[in-house]
Amino acid sequence: MSLFQIAKTTVKSLFSAPATLMYPTKPAKKSKGTRGTLENDINRCIFCGNCQRKCPCVAITVDKNSRTWELDRFRCVSCNCCVEVCPVKCLRMENDYTKPTTDSKMKVLLKSEKPAPAQAPKPVAPPGVANPRSQKPGTPNAPSADSPP
Amino acid sequence: MAKRIVIPFGPQHPVLPEPIHLDLVLEDEKVVDALLSIGYVHRGLEKLVEKREFPEYVYVIERTCGICSYIHGLSYCQAIEEIMKIEIPERALFLRTMGSEYSRMHSHLLSMGCLADGMGFENLFMNLFKVRERIVDRMEASFGGRIIQGTCKVGGVRKDIDEESLGSIVTEMESIEKELKEITDVLIKDDSVKHRLRGVGMLSKEDAYELGAVGPTARGSGVKIDLRMRGYAAYDRIKFEPVLGTGGDCHSRTAVRVRELFQSADIIKQCAKKIPDGPIEVKYTGNPKGEYFSRVEQPRGEAIHYAKGNGSRFLQRFRIRTPTFANVPPLIHMLKGCDLADVPLIIISIDPCISCVER
Q1: Does residue A11 fall inside a structural domain?
Q2: Does the residue B1 lie in any domain?
Q3: Average pLDDT, chain A
Q4: Which of A79, A84, A141 best probes binding to B when mutated, by most B CB atoms within 10 angstroms?
Q5: Domain count for chain B
Q6: Taking CA atoms, what residue in B is nearest to A35?
Q7: Is there a domain that residue B11 lies in?
Q8: Residue A139 touches chain B, beta carbons under 8 Å
Q9: Percentage of chain B with pLDDT > 90?
Q10: Cβ atoms within 10 A of the Cβ of A24, count?
Q11: Is B59's CB within 8 Å of A81's CB?
Q12: Is A110 strand, coil or helix?
């Protein structure tokens, strides 16, 4: 008779600790290698734009002239691609997940405090066209899309 | 003849995790015909291949499906590597095999949990998900992501597993197997489960073959199709046999998944013991030029990835034939003649993944 096959498991579960974690009161589990939140040590950033070009979801916008680095957290999928291509290793992936928000946007704008190098580097391409994808009108990362919808 | 009525099923339905719509033509309580429509979650991922460079496209392709993401990535990388004639290090092949089997385990547990939930067996559903959590946690610790592991890249893998973790994987897997045995016995042996699943959604061996069923749907009917036997990644160095069922009903398909869980656990243990030392990736230069069909076994069955490169950084064409897409004709066949109350169970028993179908 195997009508109550699960009874043993159920009785055991009754007398053991809960399998779930009472999340807000207890901190969530963390693993060392988890890809959670992307962070940038902006003062070490050289604004090369590699992360912007390689980002598969067009979440990063780098502006060399104003020395800013912008990340749209809602677009970022934490794939770690930018961290791998960063030549100065100023990008890093933290192992805790992004905090929730009630805002419709979640953009992080970082501006370098360090002044630009004394002699301006030779511009390889006109500023802003490093990533032609983000320049299309209507793309969420295009500068024009920053105005509220 | 009874009057025919049409009942819409989905896209929002308690048993469906993803949107699929069926128009069920009923005569009294019997389904006489089912008309399927999809198109609720189409994202155009295949077209995106023209906008993303081929090494970065792997991140996109992994997001085709939330459950079998790892094997999509593996298959894509395999296709590019074959086109570019890149030789992958042994260690990377073993790591890919382990990743595939971890994702197969958590996918099967999810599918069986949904099945238990579909028949109203909440307790079993929660217990199955409890075990799944352990597997997902291990995936997060080893690969960096709970579901989307994202470690496959063209030329190898991105993350290595150290010796200490490999040892703990074996001991942990043994304890998971013990826990699994207790829970899955309920799915196989419990009278109420048997009563609910036996004889429901019959698919004979001939029909399964002719309609092109793949994966556990085909194997549950006794068709011996398992792409892993072709020996991609490190499967040619692992001992295993395809799991076959005989009944061809929902219970048989579930039993196949249960036995595949233990098979996957065994493959992971074999990999952890046999894995050789060495590099995990190779450097490569150049761009893909040529085309390749990559065939892999996903938790739901055979997936085919077609890639065509023209020598530039962007692929010219990319196409996926996903297992659920192949399992739709058998599903429609199974639905004809069943009771209305069995429809949710039959749909869940093929483990549908609609995001995969629509890409």
Answers
A1: no
A2: no
A3: 74
A4: A79
A5: 1
A6: B144
A7: no
A8: no
A9: 11
A10: 7
A11: yes
A12: strand
Query: Does A71 have pLDDT greater than 50?
Result: yes
Q: What's the count of helices (H) and strands (E) in chain B, helices before strands? A: 12, 8
> pLDDT-derived band of residue A53, with 50, 70 and 90 as boundaries?
confident
User: Which CATH number fits the domain that encloses residue A58?
Assistant: 3.30.70.3270
pTM score, whole prediction: 0.84
Alpha carbon A2 to its chain's center: 51
pLDDT at residue A121, rounded to an integer: 52
Round to whole Å and give the CA distance between B173 and B21.
Answer: 39
Residue A147's pLDDT is 41
Q: Which long-range contacts (CB under 8 A, 24 or more apart) does B81-85 make?
A: B81/B154, B81/B155, B82/B292, B82/B294, B83/B288, B83/B289, B83/B290, B83/B291, B83/B292, B83/B307, B83/B309, B84/B154, B84/B284, B84/B286, B84/B287, B84/B288
Q: What is the ipTM of this complex?
A: 0.72
Mean pLDDT of B227-253: 86
For residue A134, what are its two tokens?
A: 């983000």
Per-residue tokens: B51: 């906008």
Print the domain residue range for A80. Answer: 32-117+124-131
Tokens 């398909």 sit on residue: B253
Which residue of chain B has the CA closest to A77?
B59
- Per the structure, the count of domains in chain A is 1
Q: How many CA atoms lie within 13 A of B134 on its CB side?
A: 18
Out of A85-89, A140-144, B123-127, least confident range: A140-144
| Residue B34 resides in a domain | no
pLDDT in tens, A34-43: 888 888 888 8
**Inside any domain, residue A57:** yes
Question: What are B105-124's pLDDT values in tens digits?
Answer: 999 999 899 888 888 888 88
Q: Is residue A148 assigned to a domain?
A: no
Alpha-carbon span B347 to B328, nearest angstrom: 9
In a domain, B81, yes or no: yes
Residue B321 · residue B11 · CB < 8 Å: no
Give rounded-to-5 percent helix, strand, coil for chain A: 20, 15, 65
Residue A145 DSSP symbol: G
- The CATH number linked to B164 is 1.10.645.10
Whether A85 is in a domain gets the answer yes
CB distance from A84 to chain B under 8 Å?
yes
Kindly list the residues from chain A whose CB atom is less than 8 angstroms away from the CB atom of residue B158.
Answer: 80, 84
Place of tokens 């243990």: B269
How many CA atoms lie within 13 Å of B207's alpha carbon, on the beta-carbon side? Answer: 17
Range of the domain at B243: 42-358
> What's residue A123's pLDDT?
53
C-alpha–C-alpha distance, residues B242 and B221, integer Å: 13
Q: Is A120 exposed, middle or buried (0-12, 13-18, 19+ CB in 10 A)?
A: exposed
CA dist B3 and A137 (Å) reads 55
